[in-house]
Amino acid sequence: MTTTGSSALERLSRLPVANIGDAMERLNVCHSAVRSTWEGARLAGPALTVLTRPGDNLFIHRAIEAVQPGQVIVVAGGADESRALIGELMAGRAKAARCAGFVIDGAVRDVAVIRALGVPVFARAVTPAGPYKNGPGALDVPVAIGGVVVSPGDYVVGDDDGVAVVTPSTAEEVATKAEAKHAQENAARATIAEALGHPFPTG
């Protein structure tokens, strides 16, 4: 149900990514390889985009210096799995800057500490191998993440099921449709729970 006065991004942040994807006709959902690095991680925020050479994180450092509170750093790393583009130290600095989290089409490391820090990180792979810091790269340009184009400022939402991208111009409509889908599924859960004789499990 729509909350009066809530922004579209706030509404999207409270919904399962699966329902958001349903509301977009199953489009604008990242490839399944781009997933949460720790169970229960959730993020929602406007994208600060990063284009980087595979295996190189120079411009991710620059993004952490530039990130605004609530933004999600979205990194097009060429789907490379051989070098981790961030680890615990970068995640910690991002959290101190009040970054909402990371979505990386590439690899990361130090996932146990990242989980302990509570930084939502979605990535394609985990590896202990570190990155280079030579560039080139760019900030705030359109990028491709897991088969989805992300423009600067697009809303990025992630949970245990994966990542969806919503353009601000469609966010109100998508939120309304996703809320309706979620309400429909809640009714179905209640019916199943009654038949089971115990509450329906929650994620």
TrEMBL record:
Gene Ontology MF, one: methyltransferase activity
A GO biological-process term: methylation
Catalytic activity: 4-hydroxy-4-methyl-2-oxoglutarate = 2 pyruvate; oxaloacetate + H(+) = pyruvate + CO2
Enzyme Commission code(s) on record: 4.1.1.112, 4.1.3.17
Pfam family, one: RraA-like
Domain of life from the UniProt record: Bacteria
Keywords: Methyltransferase, Transferase
Gene3D superfamilies: Ribonuclease E inhibitor RraA/RraA-like (3.50.30.40)
Subunit structure, as described in the record: Homotrimer.
Function: Catalyzes the aldol cleavage of 4-hydroxy-4-methyl-2-oxoglutarate (HMG) into 2 molecules of pyruvate. Also contains a secondary oxaloacetate (OAA) decarboxylase activity due to the common pyruvate enolate transition state formed following C-C bond cleavage in the retro-aldol and decarboxylation reactions.
Family (UniProt): Belongs to the class II aldolase/RraA-like family.
Designated name of the protein: Putative 4-hydroxy-4-methyl-2-oxoglutarate aldolase
Native source species: Nocardiopsis sediminis
Lineage: Bacteria, Bacillati, Actinomycetota, Actinomycetes, Streptosporangiales
